[in-house]
Amino acid sequence: MAWEEWEQLKAEAARRQSTAMQLDHVAPADGGGGGGAADLVVHQDDLGAVGHEALILHGRLQRQADIAGAGAGADGNGSGSTSRAAGELKKSNFAMASALEETVEVWTSQVNSVLQAVAHISNHLDYSKKAHALDDAWISADLLRDDGSAMPVSRLNDYFK
């Protein structure tokens, strides 16, 4: 491809593209697009359920993915069986010992990263659930009449005119 041809193709591509941001998406089945009613609805029960599942996952990962501490004994003290095996291999001058030690270190690091992410998700969802409950209470209290009854929708519409 000649330089001139390359420059021409770049110029054509630049003319075809808009300067505005474009997001790739799949068109909705009904042919509609954005600008309609809100389509993201999250219920507090959903947040709580996902947060609870994240907490359960965190506990399972902590127990089942720990190869460094596996076989450390009932009290959890001492080295796990994988670390002890690496030590025994090292004593016997097996080259595989350092590879096994490195595998345990990398695995432990990766598991800890996943544990931190799952804990963050669980904590954030718990916080979101509580924060949204407080927001809902504040909004509902703010939208009460002086007598304590709920403000009718027709009155709320006046605020948007």
Give the structure's gist in a few sentences.
The chain has five helices and no strands. The chain is mainly alpha-helical and 161 residues long.
* SSE succession: HHHHH
The rough form would be described as: flat
Uncertain spans: none
Query: Average pLDDT, to the nearest integer?
Result: 75
How many helix segments?
Answer: 5
Question: What is the rounded distance between the termini?
Answer: 60 Å
Portion of residues within helices? 55-70%
Give a quick account of the main beta sheet: strands, pairing sense, barrel closure: none
Number of strands: 0
Q: Report the sheet-strand fraction.
A: under 5%
Please give the radius of gyration in angstroms.
29 Å
Structural class, by secondary structure, is mainly alpha
Word description of this protein:
The chain contains 5 helices and no strands. It has 161 residues and is mainly α. 6% of the residues are buried.
List the topology elements.
Blueprint: H1 3-16, H2 44-64, H3 81-91, H4 96-142, H5 153-158
Question: Keywords for this structure?
Answer:
single chain; 161 residues
